[in-house]
Amino acid sequence: MTDVQTRTESTTCRHHNPGTPRRAVFAGAGAIGAACLLAACGTDTQPDNGGANGSGFTNDPAPAGSAGTNGKPTTGGDTGGGTSLAKVADIPEGGGAIKGDLVITQPKPGQYKAFSKVCTHQGCDVNGVENGLIVCPCHRSEFSIEDGSPQSGPAKQALPETKVKVDGDDIVAA
After folding, report:
1. Fewer CB atoms inside 10 A, N or C side of the chain?
2. Which residues on adjacent β-strands are paired with residue 22?
3. b/e for 69-83, b at 16 or more Cβ within 10 A?
4. Which CATH number belongs to the domain containing residue 117 in this structure?
5. Rounded to two decimals, what is the model's pTM?
6. Contact yes or no for 118/64 (Cβ under 8 A)
7. Contacts 24+ apart (CB under 8 A), 130-139
């Protein structure tokens, strides 16, 4: 014999009813997740560069690792040959290393270059040098260790270069 259960309330399945709170919760969670994802991939178009009202904003910023404000280097004091950016021994031939705000490379023996570590695609920090290319982990843009030009991926602009020179065992700003 089979048991038959009878109900007096509606037999409509609540999972198929678009007005239930459960569906609203899942839809809201999905919308919040999508908004967070889009916000994480966006860029800030007006960084605060010193002014409470954004007065420090410039369309011509200084390259990463350079001193100064509004894209203009400061004068006076020690402007080159001073602070070590890296040791010569730390930068492999045909490769490079991330040091502070820069990626310092050695494309040819004794030739050193320095580029901003900030990817020109969406502002992520590059995270390494592989097979003669500077690599951004966010969208796999790759840049030349010789001139910072984009080699693959969505980036279309080269990494900004900072001139460097060798001073004894150190690589310093030129």
Report:
1. N
2. none
3. eeeeeeeeeeeeeee
4. 2.102.10.10
5. 0.55
6. yes
7. 132/94, 132/95, 132/107, 134/96, 134/103, 134/105, 134/159
Q: Count the alpha carbons within 13 Å of 135 in the hemisphere toward its beta carbon.
A: 10
Q: Average pLDDT by consecutive 10-residue portion of the chain (174 residues)?
A: 54 44 55 54 44 42 44 37 89 97 97 98 95 96 98 97 96 95
CA distances from 120 to 34, 67, 158, 161 (A): 24, 20, 7, 12
Q: How far apart are CA 174 and CA 167, in angstroms?
A: 10
- Amino acid (1-letter code) at residue 64: A
Asked whether residue 154 is domain-assigned, the answer is: yes
Asked whether the beta carbons of 58 and 45 are under 8 A apart, the reply is no
**CA–CA dist 99, 94 (Å, integer):** 16
Q: Write out the residue range of the structural domain in which residue 114 sits.
A: 84-173
135 occurs within a structural domain:
yes
Note the pLDDT of residue 58. Answer: 43
